[in-house]
Amino acid sequence: MRITVLGKSPAWSDAGGACSGYLVQEDGHALLIDCGSGVFSKLREHCDYVDVSSVLVSHLHADHFLDLVPFSYALTYAPRQQPVPVAGWPGTAAPARPRLLAPIGAADAFRHIVSCWGQEGLIEDAFDLHEYQPWDELESGPFHLRFCEVPHFTRTFAVEVTDPSGHRLTFGADCSPNDQLVEFARDTDLLLIEGTLPRPERTGERGHLTPGEAGDHGRRAHARRLVLTHYSDELDPEWIRTQAAVSHQRV
Length: 251
Ligand SMILES: [Zn+2]
Hints:
β11 (190-194), α7 (211-221) and β12 form a beta-alpha-beta unit. This protein has helices at 39-44, 62-65, 68-77, 106-114, 122-126, 180-184, 211-221, 237-249, and strands spanning 2-7, 21-26, 29-33, 52-56, 99-103, 128-132, 137-140, 143-150, 156-162, 168-171, 190-194, 225-229. The protein has eight helices and twelve strands. The structure holds zinc ion.
């Protein structure tokens, strides 16, 4: 499988960057994991949006799904999606309608958000929405998908993508330190894990990892490769890498 990081920003976008978005491709099949702010524009630099088969949302935080809005507008209003010829496009009887896999409660949440400007069905009409359950095992073209609930501020799911040769990508989504992700990612080929915080939350509930904690999760899971994500461009990437590497290699 080919993995493209479209956006790795935390909840506020990097300069010129995008929030959470990862394009996974194999044999002409395209799966988009998360669709945060700015991701739709980045997606279009790598892949035609009508060729995306499925979009998978890990959890209902803005930085992980907000660009479903421009994506939905494209699927709804783009000339080539219309049933009649428009501006050189021939018209189609089968407009693209990608599958949208999102956690329980997503339909209500999406309806609530887009109803603010009077388009309640925008996302559901544009996509074929399916709310997944934690125990679901789904197929997306050549990929097999599994889920693991991880602790965060809202219900959140790590995702495993396995290709036909058995190669595994584990995406940790957003999470506080936990054992579930370590078990889920055991011996994975690539663990894509957040390292959001320069230091642990000082007060209240924890919801994210430091780069050192991310590295520690990778070490405990025996992940073959570790890629840190969801950190700001206001942090030194070399410091992030070093922190994670020290924890990942510690025996
Ligand atoms: Zn989050």
